[in-house]
């Protein structure tokens, strides 16, 4: 018999093996617990321990205990190493049931936040990663080295199919590359999915023909998984190049299914992240956006929203740090294109590019359709703000020769909205 002691998962001298998944958590121990005891409970509950000591026949047991191996008392940060055999290959739900499961609610900690993961090749190799990643700028669009530009029609719901396609057409003609559905537009009576898909792609084809630039449509396929896979097939049938999926509300298993189906059709995946703030907004509890973005890369999205480096309307974490991770090496997975969105307008584009570089997608809704002269002028103003920034010319100077940008700057200045 062997004893699995619930409080014996701590070894500060332990050096994690290269095959292990190493997770960093910020924890506040329960009132009557030391940080060592709480760290041990985190490692125990998230691997093979429980609240009681277990007595198991050694011959019938694979040892799968995690080890809490580093504790930084000043930051309340702990590091836990998980053996690769704990995990089912290629199952994101199973991994998250371990590293972000019961421990999030257990009484041994007042609060706990999964901050970062160091993913070993043994786990990464079970996932496909992006099919195109940052390559979409050149493989599917004509953005070259500039940021990809996208817009979401506003109001976010309620526009008829014809109005939606018309707004898209105006925005494409004004200079954006991608039309995107807002997250709460899927398949409602006022704007049914297949009609919207067909009309929007017909408008795209007209614009491409006239302006000589490739354009595309991020149609929101989000829904129940079987329905969603049918929608992915429809996008391919109608000649679309991308799908959009709201990854957190759908769940990672559904994202994995969509990734597989998109491979069959050569479709790229734009990941929206509604509900992420339920996990990442509090800095002492939940799952960081950094980790959510890592999971999305493994599951194989090509774009993911990562915030605006503080320049938009929503509270965000460390956008530059997350984007660096998405662009960096991860055992050969393609890099993911980060999307900056939420409250952006032409007046902040120079600051945004300064903060995040050019290998991004800039997405604006209100910042285009709220332009005093309408959507077409708004799209032109956004494109002009990018041109100015890449030419190293100040927005004010560029606006002297570009009326649409001048009007946008008069309206919004360089203010960050709320
Ligand atoms: C943007 C919008 C999106 C944001 C969400 O609209 O509706 O849902 O992408 O933010 P607008 P994030 O441009 O009018 O603010 O990108 O941070 O997930
Ligand atoms: Mg939205």
TrEMBL record:
It holds the Pfam family RuBisCO_large. Keywords: Carbon dioxide fixation, Lyase, Magnesium, Metal-binding, Oxidoreductase. Its cofactor is Mg(2+). The keyword Oxidoreductase applies. One of its GO terms (biological process) is AMP catabolic process. InterPro entries: RuBisCO (IPR033966), RuBisCO_III (IPR017712), RuBisCO_lsu_C (IPR000685), RuBisCO_lsu_C_sf (IPR036376), RuBisCO_lsu_fd_N (IPR017443), RuBisCO_lsu_N_sf (IPR036422). Residues 8-122 form the Ribulose bisphosphate carboxylase large subunit ferrodoxin-like N-terminal domain. The keyword Oxidoreductase applies. Residues 136-412 form the Ribulose bisphosphate carboxylase large subunit C-terminal domain. One of its GO terms (molecular function) is ribulose-bisphosphate carboxylase activity. The record marks 313 as: Transition state stabilizer. The modification N6-carboxylysine is found at residue 180. The active site is at residues 154, 272. Catalyzes the addition of molecular CO(2) and H(2)O to ribulose 1,5-bisphosphate (RuBP), generating two molecules of 3-phosphoglycerate (3-PGA). Functions in an archaeal AMP degradation pathway, together with AMP phosphorylase and R15P isomerase. Because the Archaea possessing a type III RuBisCO are all anaerobic, it is most likely that only the carboxylase activity of RuBisCO, and not the competitive oxygenase activity (by which RuBP reacts with O(2) to form one molecule of 3-phosphoglycerate and one molecule of 2-phosphoglycolate), is biologically relevant in these strains. PANTHER family: RIBULOSE BISPHOSPHATE CARBOXYLASE, RIBULOSE BISPHOSPHATE CARBOXYLASE LARGE CHAIN. This is Ribulose bisphosphate carboxylase. The gene is rbcL.
């Amino acid at each position: 018999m062997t004893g699995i002691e619930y409080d014996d998962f701590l070894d500060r001298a332990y050096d994690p093996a290269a095959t292990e998944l190493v997770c960093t958590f910020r924890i506040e121990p329960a009132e009557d617990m030391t940080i060592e005891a709480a760290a041990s409970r985190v490692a125990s509950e998230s691997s093979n321990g429980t609240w009681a000591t277990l007595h198991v026949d050694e011959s019938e047991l694979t040892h799968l205990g995690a080890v809490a191996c580093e504790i930084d008392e000043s930051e309340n940060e702990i590091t836990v190493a998980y053996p690769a055999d704990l995990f089912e290959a290629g199952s994101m739900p199973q991994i998250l049931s371990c590293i972000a499961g019961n421990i999030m609610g257990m009484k041994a900690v007042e609060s706990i936040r999964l901050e970062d993961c160091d993913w070993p090749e043994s786990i990464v190799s079970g996932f496909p990663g992006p099919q195109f990643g940052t390559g979409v700028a050149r493989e599917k669009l004509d953005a070259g080295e500039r940021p990809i530009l996208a817009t979401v029609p506003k109001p976010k719901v309620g526009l008829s199919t014809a109005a939606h396609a018309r707004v898209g057409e105006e925005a494409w003609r004004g200079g954006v590359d991608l039309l995107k559905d807002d997250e709460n537009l899927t398949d409602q009576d006022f704007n049914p999915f297949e009609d919207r898909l067909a009309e929007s792609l017909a408008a795209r084809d007209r614009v491409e023909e006239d302006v000589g630039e490739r354009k595309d449509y991020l149609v929101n396929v989000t829904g129940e998984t079987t329905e969603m896979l049918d929608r992915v097939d429809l996008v391919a049938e109608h000649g679309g190049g991308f799908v959009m999926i709201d990854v957190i509300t759908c769940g990672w298993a559904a994202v994995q299914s969509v990734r597989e189906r998109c491979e069959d059709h050569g479709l790229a995946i734009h990941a929206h992240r509604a509900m992420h703030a339920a996990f990442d907004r509090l800095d002492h509890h939940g799952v960081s956006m950094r980790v959510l973005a890592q999971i999305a890369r493994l599951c194989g999205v090509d774009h993911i929203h990562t915030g605006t480096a503080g320049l938009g309307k929503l509270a965000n974490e460390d956008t530059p740090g997350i984007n660096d991770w998405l662009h960096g090496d991860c055992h050969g997975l393609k890099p993911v294109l980060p999307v900056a969105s939420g409250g952006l307008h032409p007046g902040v584009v120079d600051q945004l590019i300064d903060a995040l570089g050019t290998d991004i997608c800039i997405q604006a809704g209100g910042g285009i359709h709220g332009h005093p002269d309408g959507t077409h002028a708004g799209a032109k103003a956004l494109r002009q703000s990018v041109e100015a920034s890449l030419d190293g010319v100040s927005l004010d100077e560029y606006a002297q020769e570009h009326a649409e940008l001048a009007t946008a700057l008069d309206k919004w200045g360089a203010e960050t909205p709320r």
